[in-house]
Amino acid sequence: MTTVEDALTRPDPATTRRARRVAVHTFRPRRSWPAFIVGALIVAVAGLAAAEVISTLVGSPLRILPVDKAADYAGSARWNDPSVQVASAVLALIGLVLISLALVPGRGRWTVLRTDDPALVVGLSRAGMRRALTAAACEVDGVRGASVRVGRRRVKVRAETVLRHAGDLPAQVRAAVQGRLDELDPVRKPKVRAQVRYAKA
Amino acid sequence: MTVGKRARRSARGNRWGLALVGLLLVLAGAAALATGWGLFGVGPARSALVGAPIVDGLRRPWVPYVVAAVAIVVALLALRWLVVQGRTDTVGRLRMDPGDEGGTTEMPAGVARSVFEEEIGDYAGVRRARAHITESGVDPQLRVDLTLNDDADASAVWRRIRAEALDDLRTSLELERLPAVIRMSMTAPPRNPRRELV
């Protein structure tokens, strides 16, 4: 529900757009774990390589890595060997996975709520969104329990009732959940679908 | 500074780093596959991975030094990338406006936080509130983690935070602006509800 104050101070569309962009970017997945894993692997490989080369130059080679075996293999294997081709394909595939991780925005754990204020970013956890909508569905008269699945574009509500004839219960549940959703005001507004299941009393 | 600038910058760096490493792997793998399929000629396809010309090239005296230097640089860059992941954007001390005497006052962030957390904790529907000062000691921002009851009016809670608690904190810290990130999660209402007057 908007207060009089909120209605009077509605900002211009440019600020609203900026607020939405900042908020969405704030809650986008940061890819920390892939970055950590890739970084750790690079440190390990490059560090070992540097250690091996430097120790060999100094005169007391460490020989942690199997350099001799690798050199033998590299000398005898050919580019059109199946093992080499499989290994290169795997390498390219891993590279594609990393690129897609970088380019795909990702869903994130937080649903961004609209604030129209670039200095205030509000997010609701995915479980929290589910709980709030489930609570809204359960508030309808006649609904004994409900389960909600929140997707990117759709919210599916399955309500359970012990009533014999539901009448317009699906519509009521849909309206209740839609009302709660409007109250929360996420930046992306999913459509609500409600289904009623008749359970034994 | 816009909200969460440090965090967003590190997120963007991560994506760039992943894209770069991914691109290198794709190029290397694709080049190896192409060589094997004969796209660079039948000769290279049948030749060994590290054949005679490459071995001669590797025998040159400066090669080990260059390899070692490149490996060290790469390792250090990757190490920095690793370390950045562990860093949080929380700030421990706030720097207050320097007075006329020219000195600066530093205040531990905990003082401002606990007052704020207590104030919010009393709002209707709020079960738990945790606040952290982020970004910098001079231009601080706020990150608030809330746990609400699932029948609480989330919208009303954050509007109230903006109108009351956030404004109070901002004036008490003598700041012109205090950007904030609020993260709300929900939990079932308590069995024995607290008597709430507000």
TrEMBL record, chain A:
Organism classification: Bacteria, Bacillati, Actinomycetota, Actinomycetes, Streptosporangiales
Residue spans crossing the bilayer: 35-58, 86-104
Top-level lineage group: Bacteria
One protein family per Pfam: DUF6286
Name listed for the protein in its UniProt record: DUF6286 domain-containing protein
Keywords: Membrane, Transmembrane, Transmembrane helix
Domain DUF6286 positions: 93-197
TrEMBL record, chain B:
Transmembrane recorded as keyword: yes
Organism, as annotated: Marinactinospora thermotolerans DSM 45154
Alphabetic keyword roster: Membrane, Transmembrane, Transmembrane helix
Residues passing through the membrane, by range: 63-83
Protein name: Alkaline shock response membrane anchor protein AmaP
